Amino acid sequence: MDTRLALLQTARKAFAERGYAATSLEDLARTLGLTKAAVYHHFASKRALLEALLEEGSQETQRALSRPGTLHQRLMALALAYRGQVEPLTALMTAQSGRRGGDQEAVYLAQEAMNRGIEQLATVLERVSPGHGRSLAVVFASIVHGVYMTAQHMPGYSVELLLQEGVDLFVRGLPEQNSGHCGHSR
Predict the structure, then answer these.
(1) Which end of the chain has less Cβ packing within 10 Å, N or C?
(2) What is the pLDDT of residue 183?
(3) Is 103 left (phi over 0), alpha (psi -120 to 50) or beta?
(4) Is the CB of residue 72 less than 8 Å from the CB of residue 167?
């Protein structure tokens, strides 16, 4: 067993289910049948574990955006890679609303990670649409996050199908309507 990887996977799940503040390193050790010393061998603190999760997400974003292929293919890879990031980020951001045990430092780290992801994407989109990279990155991130939240909370939606449609619409735009009115006839 790769202990570091197991800790990251278990922490991702625990942060999503219980929230960051309500999850302790001792809980993670117990879940994996490890000693606290084994956990501390890999991560000096819960913050270090969170930072490793967030860094992993940043690296996944960079890999998706720098891979060969069309813009559509790279954005789809990014949207699919987001799956591993959405749970810890959602857990941290909802902590701010008081619905879960919160930790302001963790919320700050999550916000910083989200800003880094937006900037990584903005750099790519700026080359496609100069002067609009950051706003397009925020819109794209909202589409992707919305897809995951919809699929998680509303039965009957497929993440993959919604992402495919969302990426298609983002890259290609809405089809032109002959009447000039979106789906409405006069």
Answers:
(1) C
(2) 40
(3) beta
(4) yes
Q: What is the pLDDT of residues 85-139, one digit of tens each?
A: 655 566 555 555 454 445 777 778 888 888 898 999 999 999 999 999 999 999 9
What values do phi and psi take at 36, rounded to 5? -60, -35
- Residues of the chain short of pLDDT 50, as ranges, are 97, 99-101, 181-186
DSSP labels for 81-92?
HTHHHHHHHHHH
Q: How far apart are CA 60 and CA 48, in angstroms?
A: 18
Calculate Rg over the CA atoms of the chain: 19
Asked if residues 14 and 28 have their Cβ atoms less than 8 Å apart, the reply is: yes
2, 44, 53, 62 from 65: Cα distances, Å: 27, 31, 19, 5
**Positive/negative CA dihedral, 173, 178, 180, 185:** negative
Q: Report residue 51 as tokens.
A: 């930072």
